[in-house]
Design goal:
globular, 84 residues, five-stranded antiparallel beta sheet, single chain, 1 helix, alpha+beta
């Protein structure tokens, strides 16, 4: 079963149409930023399923860390493709 995870799209480190480019960039980012925690390559589940984004695992939206103002929707669901 795929793990769905939510992020604010504005927190993305990068957006790619090629999975291999996304993985390579995530690996480079992880090597240069060891203190930032885990880096995730995720695939958007809506709109454009061929788009891959890179996020820091700590930027994940949970009910505990994200309070949305009324009427605003600043989250999107993603499927984790690769963890670093």
């Amino acid at each position: 079963m795929d793990e769905l995870i939510f992020f604010n799209p504005g927190d993305s480190i990068g957006n790619f149409h090629d999975y291999n480019d996304a993985v390579q960039t995530a690996q480079i980012y992880r090597e240069k930023n060891q203190d930032d925690g885990h880096v995730l390559v995720v695939q958007k589940t809506e709109a454009n399923p061929t788009s891959f984004d890179i996020f820091l695992a700590d930027d994940q939206i949970t009910h505990k860390n994200e309070q949305l103002p009324t009427g605003q929707d600043n989250e999107a669901s993603y499927k984790i493709s690769k963890r670093f």
